[in-house]
Amino acid sequence: MTLEPDHNAMPQSSSRISAEVVVARDLFDQPATWPELVSGSRPVELEIGSGKGLFLVTAASQRTAHEFVGVELAAKFANRAAARIAKHGLETRVKMLRGDAQQFLQVVVPDESVAGIHVYFPDPWWRNKHKKRRVLNDQTLGDIQRALVPGGQFHFWTDVLDYYEHICARTMDTTQLAGPAFVPQRVAQHTMDYTTHFERRARAHSQPVYRAIFTKLSN
């Protein structure tokens, strides 16, 4: 992520204080290489479609020995996620990117470099003419398998049963990942104790959430 000064900020009291606006690194303007984003000395987890960044902040706060990379296509959400990460002082271990997650995974992420890949509540794009927009397809599933380290896990959640069954079936048919393993729902301890804002909204409306984990077995 990058820091850009806000030149329109008003001075406070008699001193001039320049505020800083935190934004996600835009891969369309600033392509990145993997060594630029991660240290290489810690396990890395990747989230595809990070939204407002709730998962990244929560997971990074809990798993302090890990690094995280999030990719979000919508600039306004990517920037909100970057600001949330900076607010919690996690920017040294969490990199928030704005860009095409499919291309990033295919081109930038090396083989067997990621301990976990998280895809939560992706748009199912049910109309035939829109299916090409799905972030999860056979190419992406293959890249997920390639990028995971042995023992690494692919986490997939959705609130759409048909889409859950479709992705689980495609993962079993097109990859050698083991699963799906069922993930039980846990009780939230406070109003923001959810994996993502989508889970929070679904559970607030008593909608079911379908969760699965696939694991890359050792050769």
Total count of strands:
10
Structural class: alpha/beta
The CATH superfamily is known as Vaccinia Virus protein VP39
Please indicate the percent range of residues in DSSP E strands (runs of 2 or more).
25-35%
Q: Which architecture name does CATH use?
A: 3-Layer(aba) Sandwich
H/E series:
EEEHEHEHEHEHEHEHE
Portion of residues within helices: 25-40%
The CATH class is Alpha Beta
CATH topology: Rossmann fold
Compact description:
This protein has 219 residues and is an alpha/beta fold. It has 7 helices and 10 strands. The protein has helices spanning 34-37, 54-62, 75-87, 101-107, 138-147, 161-174, 197-204, and strands at 2-5, 20-23, 25-26, 44-48, 67-72, 94-98, 114-120, 148-158, 178-182, 210-215.
